[in-house]
Design a protein that fits this description.
Among the domains are: 165 residues, Penicillin Amidohydrolase, domain 1; 129 residues, Orthogonal Bundle (Penicillin amidase (Acylase) alpha subunit, N-terminal domain). The protein is globular. The two termini are 37 Å apart. By secondary structure, the chain is α+β, with helices and mostly antiparallel strands. It contains 25 helices and 29 strands.
Length: 809
């Protein structure tokens, strides 16, 4: 069946203008303009000079023409948003109009046609991003990027997420299958009909995309679950610390959630009996950055100026160019959804329809466990289980490599999951020759109807519909906040969370022996028992990756809730006025007051300064309220002081591990200055015991030295945003100096990791320790009184082509 996709020439007005909040899209790219010089001389010198000038001018003209021609040719990679496309597989004529930000507004006669058009639009604007997304999930990056991508490919082939995505399609319901197939047809229709050059990344890599497959969409949902997880690395890190710290020190360095008792660590000697603890974790992965982040909150109609609920959401992810999100509106009988889509996936992941609005934050559950498996000493093709010896399940994977012969990889799995130590040198440190490390992860399953759960949000008619459909959600577990037009508000945290027995030897804290049955999972937390709230008496619900379960909650979700600083500030702001509006929600999303800075300042300023220059900086901070404003010096002074304080407190205890663990660690630092002063003693000085006030004062001296060297000796001229730009990094060309200025996006910004306007930086980066690489990737405010007043924005423009005006707008 063939239809037509109409792309009208007119531009429709944006139905809801974007709010004025931070974006990665302001500066023009630098350009080079040759200077003109006058040459004077006599006789042959003048003649030669004239000929040289003419030759040089001719070369420059030719080069300019060639460069201009190449530039014009590359510009043919930009899609046309106007006209008519014959669309094989489209059931009826469909219209796709663009607003001034190039957001597609799709009108179709059926949902499948609407998602067909979405596939066409995604391919028009984000083809390279989609290509990278599916190749990462399939472990096929080396085909495009060469041997440098082999470690990633090997690891993803061992995980086998693409195999699960392929097999999982057959287990989906018919409607989900039809939409995935229609979307793939839309992507491929654009690939067939496009003219001119491919986007610049394809030209640079000399690569042409293959047709889109339905598994390419499903695998990206699993990769989002991977990106929002990471507990397996935290398990290795605790075990790694055991080579340097006592169990008590580990419990202090990786503290429990504020107000909770310390987590009891297992007996390490018993847990890893026969393994050399001093070298066991020497090559383990670095402590992962705090990748979980996001805010959402909702107020009931009685707390709203309009009398109907208001809902806000801003998911925090790694900042990228282009954004991970793509805005779109889809209208068809039974469907009218608008919001954030993932290029490559046919669903509105975050957004609203005509009856409900919803937003998500990451729960951060423990859904990954590592198992130390003992190889059968009588047969290296087998391993030990509670029932005896069992064979590894093996398969061969062939990895194509650009410019080189293909590589054949043997992949092994145990009853717990894939053997990651076969390809990850960092986790191979577990083994020696008679042990391997296997991973259990809830997303490694064919039976994963998460796509159906995501799709259902676009057609939900009520809060009850949302609660009824999200039992399909497997991974990643999310805090889903919602509101409907009838005035109901709620939250559910759908997703599969493993149940571990009370006799589990590590309970998500460390890798455990796989030959012990007591360490096996015992099913999953029932959907009816997952955290939820519906129409609470307070009239408000907020989540910010903090602990969302009460003290007596019967199931284990995680030991690694995010610190409650953002949640505290959101609750303060919600309580600060009886009713809220879109404007008050906008102010909240851009709020830069750091509850962490507010808590730490009295402790820092209580230490006597070491010299007059330090005293002057302390006086500056004494009049500051913790507002991490972009145009002020105080946030820069405070953040640098905290950086040097972290170094001064635990670099000596951690020794060679310090760089891998170098981070703010807010709860730990606060605990040290209030209750655990032994950490302030420098273990390298045997003849004296340093106090915390000494270390605090020393850190301020070093902070000032750092700031003067970087920003000059006039503190009143220092600005937070000069050291703290938000950087949207292109993958992979943001890591290549020659291409970075063209592809990357940067803009100065306020906030820190503990403000509602959250920004995450990497202290161990000696060149740019405060550059934000993680922040609000999308912001939205939904007004259930008039959903057309809702506001949307994401961190870059709609286009993934750096030649497009919509790459930076």
């Amino acid at each position: 069946m063939a239809g037509a996709l109409e792309m009208p020439r007119h531009r429709i007005p944006h139905h809801a203008q974007a709010q004025k909040c931070h974006r990665l899209a302001h500066d023009h790219l630098p350009f080079w303009r040759p200077s003109l010089y006058t040459v004077a001389g006599r006789g042959k010198t003048l003649l030669m000079t004239k000929w040289l000038l003419r030759l040089t001018l001719a070369v420059l003209v030719l080069a300019g023409l060639a460069g201009g021609g190449a530039w014009l040719w590359l510009r043919t990679s930009l899609p046309s948003y106007d006209g008519r496309a014959e669309a094989s597989g489209l059931g009826a004529p469909t219209t796709m109009a663009r607003d001034r930000h190039a957001v597609p507004h799709i009108r179709a006669e059926s949902a499948t046609d609407a998602y067909y058009a979405l596939g066409f639009a995604h391919a028009q604007d984000r083809l390279w991003q989609m290509e990278m997304s599916r190749r990462i999930g399939a472990g096929r990056m080396a085909e495009v990027l060469g041997p440098a991508a082999l470690p990633t490919d090997r690891f993803l082939r061992v995980l086998g997420v693409y195999r699960h995505a392929e097999r999982g399609f057959a287990l989906l319901d018919g409607n989900s299958q039809a939409i995935l197939e229609a979307y793939a047809k839309g992507v491929n229709a654009y690939l067939r009909q496009r003219e001119g050059a491919l986007p610049p990344e394809f030209v640079i890599t000399r690569h042409r995309p293959e047709p889109w497959r339905v598994a390419d969409s499903l695998v990206w949902l699993k990769m989002m679950a991977w990106d929002l997880g990471g507990n397996w690395q935290a398990e290795i890190q605790r075990a790694r610390l055991s080579a340097r710290l006592t169990p008590q020190q580990i419990a202090e360095f990786l503290p429990p959630y504020p107000g909770e008792a310390p987590v009891a660590l297992p007996d390490l000697a018993e847990l890893y009996r026969g393994l050399p603890l001093e070298t066991l974790w020497a090559s383990a992965p670095r402590q992962p950055e705090d990748s979980i982040g996001s805010n959402n909150w909702v107020v009931a109609g009685r707390r709203s100026a309009t009398g109907k609920p208001l809902l806000a959401n801003d998911p925090h992810l790694g900042l990228a160019a282009p954004s991970v999100w793509y805005l779109a509106r889809l209208s068809a009988p039974g469907l009218d959804a608008i919001g954030a889509t993932l290029p490559g996936v046919p669903a509105v992941i975050l957004g609203r329809n005509r009856r409900v609005a919803w937003g998500m934050t990451n729960t951060g559950p423990d859904v990954q466990d590592l198992y130390v498996e003992r190889v059968d000493p009588a047969d290296p093709k087998r391993y030990l289980t509670p029932e005896g010896s069992a064979p590894f399940v093996s398969r061969e994977e062939v990895i194509a490599i650009k410019g080189q012969p293909s590589e054949t990889l043997t992949v092994r799995a145990t009853r717990h999951g894939p053997v990651i130590s076969d390809v990850d040198a960092r986790s191979r440190a577990v083994a020696g020759e008679n042990r391997v490390l296997a991973m259990a992860w809830t997303a490694l399953t064919d039976d994963d109807p998460s796509f159906r759960a995501a799709l259902s949000l676009g057609t939900a008619a009520s809060a009850a519909d949302i609660l009824a459909t999200q039992s399909d959600f497997v991974a990643p577990q999310q805090n889903l906040v919602f509101a409907d037009g009838e005035g109901r508000i709620g939250m559910i945290a759908p997703g599969r969370v493993p149940v571990r027995g009370p006799d589990n030897q590590a309970r998500d804290l460390m890798p455990v022996p796989g030959w012990e049955a007591r360490n096996d999972w015992r099913g999953f937390v029932p959907y009816a028992a997952l955290p939820r709230a519906l129409d609470p008496p307070s009239g408000a619900i907020a989540t910010a990756n903090h602990k969302i379960v009460p003290a007596r909650y019967p199931h284990h979700i995680t030991s690694e809730w995010a610190p409650p600083y953002r949640a505290r500030r959101i609750e303060e702001l919600l309580a600060s006025q009886p009713t809220h509006s879109i404007d008050s929600f906008r102010r909240m999303q851009n709020d830069n007051l750091s509850a962490f800075a507010r808590d730490m300042l009295p402790l820092l300023l209580a230490a006597p300064p070491a010299d007059p220059a330090s005293a002057a900086l302390a006086r500056t901070l004494g009049a500051w309220n913790g507002d991490m404003a972009r145009n002020r010096p105080e946030p820069l002074i405070f953040s640098t002081w905290i950086r040097e304080l972290a170094r001064g407190i635990y670099a000596d205890e951690l020794g060679p591990l310090f760089e891998d663990f170098f981070d703010v660690r807010p709860v730990f630092l606060y605990n040290v200055l209030t209750a655990q002063p032994a950490w302030c003693d420098d273990v390298g000085t045997k003849d004296r015991i340093e106090t915390c006030p000494e270390i605090v004062a020393r850190a301020l001296v070093r902070a000032r030295e750092f700031l003067v060297a970087r920003h000059g000796d006039a503190p009143e001229r220092w600005r937070w945003d000069e050291a703290h730009p938000a950087r949207g990094e292109h993958r992979p060309f943001g890591r290549m100096n020659a291409l970075k200025p063209w592809f990357d996006l940067r803009v100065g910004i306020g906030g820190d990791a503990f403000t509602v306007n959250a920004q995450r930086y990497t202290l161990r980066d000696e060149l740019e320790p405060f550059v934000s690489r993680h922040g609000a990737s999308y912001r939205a405010i939904y007004d259930l009184d008039d959903l057309d007043r809702s506001l949307f924005i994401h961190s870059t423009g709609q286009s993934g082509n750096p030649l497009s005006p919509h790459y930076r707008d």
